[in-house]
C-alpha cells in the first residue's frame, strides 16, 4: 500500500496547490490545453520525453481534480478531447507568472541547473 512521504494538510493552500499540480507534465499540459492542444496525442508530441501512459495518467489525475473535462466522441476510431474547466482556467495566470519568473531569471537558472541536468544524463 502506498504511504505518503509528505503529509497532506487540506487546510493549507500550498498543500492543495501542490496536490493538484504535482506531476512532471501537468503545468505544461494545462498550458497546451489552454492553447489548443486538446487531444492526448497532440499533448504527447509537445511533451518531449513523456510516454503515452504518463500523459494518460496525469490527464486522469487532472480530470479527478476537476482541472479538465474529458469529452469522448462516438466515432471510429474513438476520439477524445480535454478542455480546461473554470478551475483549470483559474490556474493560467499563475502558470503565466511562473513562466515570466523563469524567463526573468533564465541566465542564473541555466547556470545552476545545466550541471545538475548533465549529471542526470550521465
TrEMBL record:
UniProt keywords, alphabetically: DNA-binding, Transcription, Transcription regulation
Domain of life: Bacteria
Family matches, as SUPFAM superfamilies: Winged helix' DNA-binding domain (SSF46785)
Pfam families, alphabetized: HxlR
GO molecular function per UniProt: DNA binding
All copies of domain HTH hxlR-type, residue ranges: 12-110
PANTHER family to which the protein is assigned, alphabetical: TRANSCRIPTIONAL REGULATOR, TRANSCRIPTIONAL REGULATOR, MARR FAMILY
Name of protein: Helix-turn-helix transcriptional regulator
Annotated source species: Hymenobacter setariae
Taxonomic lineage of the native organism: Bacteria, Pseudomonadati, Bacteroidota, Cytophagia, Cytophagales
